[in-house]
Design goal:
Helix content is about 70%, strand content about 5%. By secondary structure, the chain is mainly α. Helix 5 packs across helix 6.
Amino acid sequence: MTYTFFQQCWWFLVSLLGALLVFLMFVQGANSAIFCLGRTEADRRLLINSTGRKWEFTFTTLVTFGGAFFASFPLFYSTSFGGAYWLWMIILFSFVAQAVSYEFQNKLGNFLGPKVFQVCLVINGVVGPLLLGGAVATFFTGSNFLIDHTSLLDSLQPVISRWANASCGLDALLNPWNLIFGAAVFVLARILGVLYIINNVDDADIRLRARRLLRVETAIFLVLFLTFFVYLLVKDGYAYDPATGVIVMEPLKYLHNFLDQWYLAVLLLVGVVLLLFGIGKTVFAQGFVYGIWPAGVGVVLVVLALLLCAGWNDTAYYPSTADLQSSLTIANSCSSEFTLRTMSVVSLLVPFVLAYIVYAWRAIDKRKITHDEIESGEAY
């Protein structure tokens, strides 16, 4: 197995983690709709306890996603997580606020009242997917950073990468295409959240409101996603020569990536079909409550295809708008061959971790959550 093989393999694994993270943001999506679906305090508590069973999965996957980038592509980690400081800190603080809100909203001595913490859950439900989507969009639109390897010789500030301005990543929010994709991810999270609530909460009124909301959210998502996807296919992309490492602009680069890697196009198409099937059957078949599963698998496939398109086929996955040659590729930003080989051995444990997650999920969801369970048992 060659060094290139391990580089491509680890981009696939990181992309898969990113795809799973987008699916698991159904927690944020459902939380953002607390006041839309829950008309009474009892309804809202029911919804919060439903997502409260799963929020650790999302947060753990987010941390694992960042850790995998740190280990396999450390130059990206230092450039994005270190350079785009404020963007990632806002995302992190929103997730911290989520954890605190779950634990303290109904504790004795909460002088702020539960509604304050419910609003914090809504804020995380909006800010988390929106900013994460905007951050992922920069894989295609670019970010304002510089790479200078000679900086290692500077004894006062031996830092290879730095942001080219003082915004520390907030300038990404000035690009309308980043906002469109971020909004698409946010609406997608709401769709997944609504599908999850329909599946997990045994309450006829909440399910009725959820199905009505699902129609509206789906229409908005299709407009946002298709707008960004068409833009992606017709825009110039960032290609590099594997022999020299020189990065150039290539017309229709991402369209070429899907044509050259036809299996990614198939993956994307299958994912879209599964997502629409899960939504459509839930909307039109009133007794069907399992839409979260085909839709969830579809989301994972679509996001995986997009992330692989961003990095494979000699593409710069983290373009620099300040200096084209500073753009990051799989080849120029990855760890050493020894590190990638060692981590590949450790990654063999991943199936066992996934098996435990599936087991824990099934154990938690053995019974649908009801008002009676909230009133009689331990709840948030």
